[in-house]
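Late entry, magnesium ion complex.
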Amino acid sequence: MEILSGIAAVPGIAIGKAFLYAEDLETPRYIIPQEQSPEEMKRFIRAVEEVAAELRTLREKAKTREQDGIFAAHLLMVEDQDFHYKVKARFETNYENIEWVVSEVARELSRKLIESPNEYLRERTADVVDVSRRIIRNLLGIKRFSLADLQEEVILVARDLLPSEVLAIRPFGPRAQGNYYNSPPEGGVCINKDKVQAVLLDAGSRTNHAAILLRSFGIPGVFGLSSATQEITNGSLIIVDGGTGQVFIEPDNETARRYKEQLAKQEQPAVNLSALKDFPAETTDSRRVSLVANIELPEEAEEIAHYGAEGIGLYRSEFLFLQNGRNSEEEQLEAYSRVVKAMNGKPVTIRTVDLGGEKALPAIANENEKNPLMGWRAIRFSLSLPDLFKTQLRAILRASIHGKVQIMFPMISNIEELEQALCLLEEARTECRKKNQDFADDIKIGTMIEIPSAVMTADILAKKSDFFSIGTNDLIQYTLAVDQENERVRHLAKGTQIAVLRLIKQTIDAAHAAGIHAAMCGEMAGDPAAAALLLGLGLDEFSMNASAIPQVKYIIRNVSIESCKALAEAALTSTSHKQVQELIRDWYNKYLPSLTLASDMIFETQAQT
Ligand code: PEP
Ligand code: MG
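Prediction complete; structure with ligand written out below:
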């Protein structure tokens, strides 16, 4: 038996056979000697012919009109003479390998399309990406295994997974039924959720979006294993303990027996935490807060009531874009309306897209950004593409007639960005009015506080915001300058670092001074070990993965705000995060001794020690 230790990314136990999943190769780039250039162009022509033939076959097999339409559009693009001309012209400029040239031409084309004011053209971006990938795969001779072909349950082992790949673990929605996602035209990933028991990654962090999505799907995960793809062979028996971050390869009989018992318990939880679902999140001395949910996909809205969510504090709308790359105003309207209707009058905070960084749209994924997390993402992305942004805003506005909608802007770093966003929102309102499209007139506007500069100017931002929501995932990494994917430094990323605590406190105080409420939607809000501290700091709303709500509620209902305030005061006067950790540990031992706290956001996990 071999044991690997990684980040306990998503709790839960799974026992199964390993399946090694290889990602797409990166497109190589090299110079072609001039005498070989005719042959390189011939490779391109050959690839185009083969891809065209492939698409014709796919059209014949298409099950729906929509599918047929997509393949037909792709065929037109593959055979488009203008596209061929652009590839040839670019090739003859630098004499770089043709796969690289195709990817560059496609990127240029996508960029132009995505910036277009014309919605139809913007929608074509996804087609360009699909077609160019298909050609590049053909050129590289890659026959990508589709996870859709998995026949049995597996423990998925990969170097890394893009959020868009994880999304495919659970294909949702009308298009899923219409087979678009079930057989993606680019031959990409699509997995039956029931087939993936757990995910093991060499890379990753607890707060990256692969982890956030797996948590929503309830699929256990251990990340940051560094060498899982090397240590584990296809088909070997694996036990995954997502709670401790341990992975057992070919476990001995005793370990297997122990985990089988635990697995049986996991399947039949002893305590029904959802029994609390209709009770308020109120301390023993009557401090009431709201517990709301984070969702990534519209379909989740229909499931969160079970956990007692009082609304949605963060709907990460970018996943809609990552899921299918094409989102007309009508398609967005449908998705947002579905969420709003499902919540039946409870508040729904739709965050405008936080694309870029690790959640880059394929059309812009090749942008050569050295520091994508500090680059063209979130509100910066939206403000630079006003037509795309206003399309989203109009869709949100129109969905607001079905319930209580709030709009939230991500990654605001200064007041000008917030003002520009508000200005575009006003334009979107005017455009709706012109078309006689109704929308609610009491939509609250929230600003995400996830950059230290936003905290420092929170008093200014508060004047133009109806609420704040603290994004600790980003706030922690930007405050402490920690890349959470880097195993050498990620232990520093703790919400209990004094600097982070002070920033949280400052944000909450600035909100209250301006008479607006302070929410938190980063992962820290759903961490039971942080609940007492956050209550004591004055947080009004906790937004988290819905499955975390019952335990946080249990804590809140069994403590007094006075004891939480005392904890917060002591933490704020501490001089090191170790001291804060001790305070928290002692506090829980004193007030909630029966609770077992496993929190790698606050304490060191087994895997990291
Ligand atoms: C955050 O940064 O804490 C947050 C909620 O935003 P995201 O995780 O989507 O970046
Ligand atoms: Mg964020």
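The CA atoms of residues 357 and 370 lie 10 Å apart. Will revisit in the morning.
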